[in-house]
Amino acid sequence: MAYTQGLSSSCLFLSHKGAPQGFQQSLGLNLPFTNSRINSSLQTRIFVELREDSAPMTSDHSKKMKIPHVLTVAGSDSGAGAGIQADLKACAARGVYCSTVITAVTAQNTVGVQGVSVVPEDFVAEQLKSVLSDMQVDVVKTGMLPSIGIVNVLSQGLREFPVRALVVDPVMVSTSGDVLAGPSILAGFREQLLPIADIVTPNLKEASALLGGQQLETVADMCSAAKLLHDMGPRNVLVKGGDLPDSLDAVDIFFDGKDFHELRSMRIKTCNTHGTGCSLASCIAAELAKGSSMLPAVKVAKHYIETALDYSKDIAIGNGPQGPFDHLLRLKSYVHNSCRQVGFNPSDLFLYAVTDSRMNKKWGRSITDAVKAAIDGGATIIQLREKDSETQDFLEAAKACFKICHSHGVPLLINDRIDVALACDADGVHVGQSDMPARVARTLLGPDKIIGVSCKTPEQAHQAWIDGADYIGCGGVYPTNTKENNLTVGLDGLKTVCVASKLPVVAIGGIGASNASSVMEIGVPNLKGVAVVSALFDRECILTEARKLHAILTESMLLQRTH
Ligand SMILES: Nc1ncnc2c1ncn2[C@@H]1O[C@H](COP(=O)(O)OP(=O)(O)OP(=O)(O)O)[C@@H](O)[C@H]1O
Ligand SMILES: Cc1ncc(CO)c(N)n1
Ligand SMILES: [Mg+2]
After folding, report:
1. What is the pLDDT of residues 332-384, one digit of tens each?
2. What is the pLDDT of residues 502-524, one digit of tens each?
3. Is 206 exposed, middle or buried (0-12, 13-18, 19+ CB in 10 A)?
4. Atom of ligand 1 nearest to the CA of 82
């Protein structure tokens, strides 16, 4: 690698300009600590730090990766929706390390703040020193600073250990209306923190308090507040409009001292907005730590909050009026996964319904009506196979079918389209031999999703097992119109594959009421059911056909057991 050398005010650096963006970010930046605006010309370089006052790098050291690091100086929220806990989660969600200096411990839940215990100033100072003297912090983000003494300690700490950027979220009142920092703190913000802040992110009430109590009710008011706040010294101001009355959008005003940017996002209809402010500021800090410049960092952060709120709009944590949201976008899929049996249940393959858009079109049915009828008739698993749909239509259909399937405890699989399965949080996918390999699908979908693979031979069945699939589909057992150029394996081929397969098998291809029992009667224990397309969806009444098939399969299963 060709490195160029240079000398900056406090550190000697080596840089390599040709490295790809991701590599630069993973190495992180080690700018001279001047608490100054992020220098965009420096962002495109990799810095391998060689401080003038430090020992030469050992080869071991040079192999270590510097990762982006945010230090949050804030209060603990026992309900974990806001404060330190929100900061940790937001940084984790953005792939950034987060250390913590705790200024206060609150007894707090979704109802409100029941108690506050302020951490003694000298112990805040001790925490600051522990972190800043040892770890390479890129960005400091402040939240609840409950006393002027703590503000003093913080500004002293930042003078002693300067960092690349300072994000000040001037927390004063919780969403529940409880006071987290009294008016005595205002002088601390105005005189000590705002002048050295790279960005300050007040909500409407906080902006109003900082400006001596002037009412802020419109976007125009927010703009003038941003300008007045900018005069107090911060390089950038973001006035958050989460609480803007009568606003259909969530509007924030960003001002960099020159231009105003009206940042709008959809206002998500949800009560789960506790901690949005803390999380937004942490996400901005995280993006800055990764090397972003200010406006893109703010935009990414706003989009992150919108996405997380939308994902979390229906989750229920606590009984109060303002719930937390899910920073990592994981909780809902956990709930869904825990609603179905833990892991894959092979008996779900019993009556496996595969949709076909052409058939639904022919019979004038919506995909959701078809899926509902199949489930009402006894289908035990649904696979959406929409070969002709546009992606957006497929995703919408998948989301609607997901609701139906889950309200009936029936797993939903998506044919081929891992992206659609991920986007609608389906239970899994079914892939063919020329689709995404099952092992790649497993990596993408994680251990909990169901993966099925179409197999015609014992070798393919073996490979599916190695790749981490949950079941195989074997066919075409009989000739079928739903798949062109499909080799028919017959009952013998099915039996050979079943005997060889370590995974449960569902038979597919030309199976219907007339031949389902012959299929099941091949008498191999890991044949768990039949998959049907035309026998359900190319019929006048899906419900009747599903019931009929279910009865036939139940009868042959009972017969097998008595033999
Ligand atoms: N319902 C919503 N839908 C989308 N975005 C929202 C919603 N509510 C708030 N936001 C956004 O979340 C961010 C935080 O704004 P808000 O005004 O709620 O801050 P805050 O009052 O400091 O938050 P908190 O005190 O709850 O931590 C802003 O970008 C705002 O636009
Ligand atoms: C500890 C703490 N910090 C910040 C907020 C603001 O949301 C809160 N509710 N609690
Ligand atoms: Mg709010």
Report:
1. 765 555 444 456 889 999 999 999 989 999 999 999 999 999 999 999 999 99
2. 999 999 999 999 999 999 999 89
3. buried
4. 27
Kindly provide the b/e burial profile for residues 329-343, where b requires at least 16 CB atoms within 10 angstroms of the residue's own CB.
bebebeebbeebeee
Residue type, 73: V
Residue nearest to atom 2 of ligand 2 (CA): 83
Q: How confident is the model at residue 127 (pLDDT cuts 50, 70, 90)?
A: very high
Task: State how far the Cα of 129 lies from the Cα of 122, in Å rounded to an integer.
Answer: 10
SS3 call for 256: coil
- Residue ranges per structural domain of the chain: 4-63, 69-329, 335-562
* CATH architecture for segment(s) 335-562: Alpha-Beta Barrel (3.20)
CA 230 to ligand 1 center in whole angstroms: 21
User: Do 153 and 124 form a contact (C-beta atoms < 8 A)?
Assistant: yes
The mean pLDDT of 123-127, rounded to a whole number, is 98
Ligand 1, residues 113, 240, 322: which to mutate, most atoms within 8 A of Cβ?
240
The preferred substitution site among 89, 110, 113, 171 for testing ligand 2, maximizing ligand atoms within 8 Å of CB, is 171
Query: What is the tens place of the pLDDT at every residue in 462-499?
Result: 999 998 999 999 999 998 877 666 789 999 999 999 99
Residue 84 Cα to ligand 2 midpoint, Å, equals 8
């497993």: which residue's tokens?
442
The mean pLDDT of the chain is 87
The CA 458 to ligand 2 mean position distance, Å, reads: 59
Q: Identify which ligand lies nearest to the alpha carbon of 146.
A: 2
Query: Is 298 in contact with 260 (CB distance < 8 Å)?
Result: no
Q: Which residues are CB-neighbours of 130 under 8 A, at least 6 positions away?
A: none
- Residues assigned a catalytic role: 240, 273, 275-278
**Which secondary-structure segment (H or E) carries 500?**
helix 490-500
Give the model's confidence band at 165: pLDDT under 50 very low, under 70 low, under 90 confident, else very high: very high
Does the structure show a pLDDT above 50 at 286?
A: yes
Q: What mean pLDDT is predicted for residues 110-136? A: 97
User: In the CATH scheme, what architecture does the domain 69-329 have?
Assistant: 3-Layer(aba) Sandwich (3.40)
Could you give the residue ranges of the DSSP H alpha helices within 363-416? Answer: 367-376, 391-407
